[in-house]
Amino acid sequence: MGWRRPRLLCCLFLSLSAASLARAATRYNEWEISYQLRSPDCVRKLAVTINGQTPGPTIRAAQGDTVVVRVKNSLLTENVAIHWHGVRQRGTPWADGTEGVTQCPVLPGDTFTYTFVVDRPGTYMYHAHYGMQRSAGLNGLIVVAAAPGEPEPFAYDGEHAVLLNDWWHASTYEQAAGLASVPLVWVGEPQSLLNNGRGRFADCSAAAAASNASLPECAAPVFAVVPGKTYRFRVASVTSLSALNFEIEGHQMTVVEADGHYVKPFVVKNLNIYSGETYSVLIKADQDPNRNYWLASNVVSRKPGTATGTAVLSYYGGRSSPRRPPPTTPPTGPAWDDTMYRFRQSVATVAHPAHIQTPPPCADRTILLLNTQNRINGAIKWALNNVSFTLPHTPYLVAMKSGLLGAFDQRPPETYAHQGYDIYGVQKNQNATTSDALYRLQFGSVVDVVLQNANMLAPNNSETHPWHLHGHDFWVLGYGIGRFDPAVHPASYNLKDPILKNTVAVHPYGWTALRFKADNPGVWAFHCHIESHFFMGMGIVFEEGVERVGKLPQEIMGCGMTKGH
Amino acid sequence: MGWRRPRLLCCLFLSLSAASLARAATRYNEWEISYQLRSPDCVRKLAVTINGQTPGPTIRAAQGDTVVVRVKNSLLTENVAIHWHGVRQRGTPWADGTEGVTQCPVLPGDTFTYTFVVDRPGTYMYHAHYGMQRSAGLNGLIVVAAAPGEPEPFAYDGEHAVLLNDWWHASTYEQAAGLASVPLVWVGEPQSLLNNGRGRFADCSAAAAASNASLPECAAPVFAVVPGKTYRFRVASVTSLSALNFEIEGHQMTVVEADGHYVKPFVVKNLNIYSGETYSVLIKADQDPNRNYWLASNVVSRKPGTATGTAVLSYYGGRSSPRRPPPTTPPTGPAWDDTMYRFRQSVATVAHPAHIQTPPPCADRTILLLNTQNRINGAIKWALNNVSFTLPHTPYLVAMKSGLLGAFDQRPPETYAHQGYDIYGVQKNQNATTSDALYRLQFGSVVDVVLQNANMLAPNNSETHPWHLHGHDFWVLGYGIGRFDPAVHPASYNLKDPILKNTVAVHPYGWTALRFKADNPGVWAFHCHIESHFFMGMGIVFEEGVERVGKLPQEIMGCGMTKGH
């Protein structure tokens, strides 16, 4: 079967210069999704793979290119959907890959073609957006080079890409069943932390694990550098649960990119990275070339129950074999509960002076979302303003374009009773409702969202939630610890050089304020990127300008009210 | 949402008397399919459940009743389809529940309504017919009572029902991935044998299993009897792999029913039962009532790696608590490799003299199927005449009624080069092809199928294959050990009182000959009922009179070429 002409709207190209248009290429990818028995941490487990691998192949393209991914579902009984995380899908909202929001799932035996333009350079990722398939292995990197003639505000001699993940030996089906059980059956902390899909289960009393220790698929990744050169490390986290701290032993990092946007450079010993975030850091290969160095990832924000994830930095021409473990103990990162350490890095991440996109000075609408754990019929859920999200039976985009505007509740709660609310106590009203309510935004309006973190059901406990917005980048206007006061805190917003991101941390007992322009016609999920939290209801959905969306492709339909239509 | 009027064709009722029609009831069942963490053998595992249970609820109806089962799929990412095993679906071929053959799978969130008539009394079962969901727990019993005024040819005072199964701790997804791997990763023998969904993992060194040993869900089932009374035990096997021998310690059994047909009664110490078969046996409660007795199931035909599955027979009014284990060791059954022991029981199973349905004296067509293990691209498959079956992307029934008669190969091999073929040797030509070829039968014609067993890929190895035919019962005309000779063996066929069955064993190195009339318009699978064998290609599909099938219900469509139609 040949390639069909990619379905594209003219407006896709509006923001690109004629010159870059002329250069734009189409990058074809042919993927087959299948179950494979893999041993990423030397312990064999069922994985959902792309062309037999997890993570899947890295998509490489240049700014302005069209990416075409033809996905064949060769699973047995299970459907799929793949999200292109950080790609705004301007003009192609049906290609966002969010099951229940922008498309029906892809059935076993079916082939679905995703076609979209990568209109900004930077580091992105892709992953399943259906059930808990992301955790099952369906994820990978997208690297978009700057268009030729569009210089980046930093220089480097070579680059490496690092995809960080956490990994469990229990199946994702079992994890999901446990999360929905009453009482909740919690899978526990991950068995391993993976670097580019490789790790080493540390507590392997099992003979099987030991006998697999020489498997190439769980050999530690080696990143080679030439002495004296500067390297860009693209670092992405697709973890299901864990907030991570990433360190390259003995090498300071300069942070230069976050979620595809240039950062005012700042130097760190190590990088805090939350699920759904991407960064680029520069390192100089200026250490003793005759030994190797650890790349270490450590769990932060939750009390770690998982060994440090490791890989190796090795110098070309040095006297150490690339495969030799460094002579040191891997770095253990900062104290896991040092919230302020992470908070300071969040605040330090602002736009590069030469790449500031000034936010609109004020918002047309402000949505204040209280993040709490709740109970519904005895089951533990996450909720926003006491509403726990559930996906509808017919994807929003499809339902709304079919004239079913009234199919969803359209009056979700805009705020919560924040005055006098004790975010440090266990919530008094633990009741929540489930809803597929849709936040409809006026097209072109400016929207502020303030995410307010609070205590969980257990006393003295508040987690970090990395919130991810589809279809947009948002300006990060401010962070705080404590209760957000709409009368006080907006005055402290950074309107000068806020970074644009698509994923941002809300720190324990803290708040994060962000702003975006509702100028991308479509329906867009906004949710905590911890997979179990979204599964348990921690998300909402925005709609804007759906009337401006062109004719939907037939292939996103076939479920719910569009089954058999 | 209210009940819709069941979709029925008038012809459904043609074979029922006016009297029974007047009595016929409609039995409504509302099912929700979901993942649950269950501990059927005291070890917790993910199961696919019906209304939270595995096995699911027993469907009870009387001959002539209409059964309606509204199935809501509440799985996360996985589709379902449910087959009503032994129900011929005359007039409702779209309700057979065979994914890829008679319907598209039911998507998560969707509800599918199965409506069919149970036109014969007897013992049947239901189970998923999609991927390996049957093994994952989606199965149960159907018990159809004789219509009032239609006496059965035996008497009893009470009845019990026993559903036998085998159970693994590895997930079915993992099992399937292993079966498709090169080299094959075999899950090994089952961890437990279950009786009505309960067993006890015998090799439980794990502390977890021990701590779960008091769970009610894995307590041994107790079957209570009144001294002096006669009981009908309905016994069904839904095993994925295991051939079983079932014994009630100290109580001889009289076999009276097989697959819904009355058997010329014969007495056995224990009953061999293959996956997909059902039997009724009578026992007399004539033993010492002051002790309990074992119900024991043991693996036969494969070298057992699984402990005896047990339950308890207890007498009312005796001095033993129903929960007290019998004072003996559970029966271990016949030698696992005593093929002739099982062969003799097969041959002994003939029609009850008062219920003989004489087969047509000769066949219009004879299909001779050689059962072999083969390799395709290095993967191990099962094949018939060196063709390994694969399901098509669009279900046959849907494709054919949509005028896509040419969508499938329609010339599958009718026979194999049987003259001089050495069934006792490893097959010389191990190459096979995969195909979704369809055997099209002339409507109303009489078809003979001879299933010829042979050696596997490993020397000196031949397994028992229980073959199951959808949409029909067939007469079992004969069994043999050795190579079937079309010029010799048909002369020995039992044309006098052959039993009608829907599932029949093909013994190691043996052959089984069966006959049926192609008089049920539809498309019908015929396959080995060992789940992994069908997954690996051991099946074919028959079509007959598809032009006589009425308008298909919309809800069976929505996949393959009917996606979005």
Low-confidence segments of chain A: 1-19, 204-209
Mean pLDDT of chain A: 93
What would you call the shape of chain A? globular
Distance between the termini of chain A: 24 Å
- The gyration radius over C-alpha positions of chain A equals 23 Å
Oligomer: homodimer
Topology of this protein?
The structure is a homodimer of 565-residue chains.
Chain A: H1 18-23, E1 26-38, E2 45-50, E3 59-62, E4 66-73, E5 82-85, E6 111-117, E7 122-128, E8 139-145, E9 158-167, H2 172-180, E10 192-195, H3 207-211, E11 222-225, E12 230-237, E13 243-248, E14 253-258, E15 261-268, E16 270-273, E17 278-284, E18 293-300, E19 309-315, H4 339-348, E20 365-376, E21 379-384, E22 387-389, H5 396-401, E23 433-435, E24 439-441, E25 446-452, E26 465-469, E27 474-481, E28 500-501, E29 503-506, E30 510-517, E31 522-528, H6 531-535, E32 539-544
Parallel strand pairs in A: 1-4, 3-8, 9-12, 11-19, 20-25, 22-23, 24-32
Antiparallel strand pairs in A: 1-2, 4-6, 5-7, 7-8, 9-10, 12-17, 13-16, 13-18, 14-15, 14-17, 18-19, 20-21, 25-30, 26-29, 26-31, 27-28, 27-30, 31-32
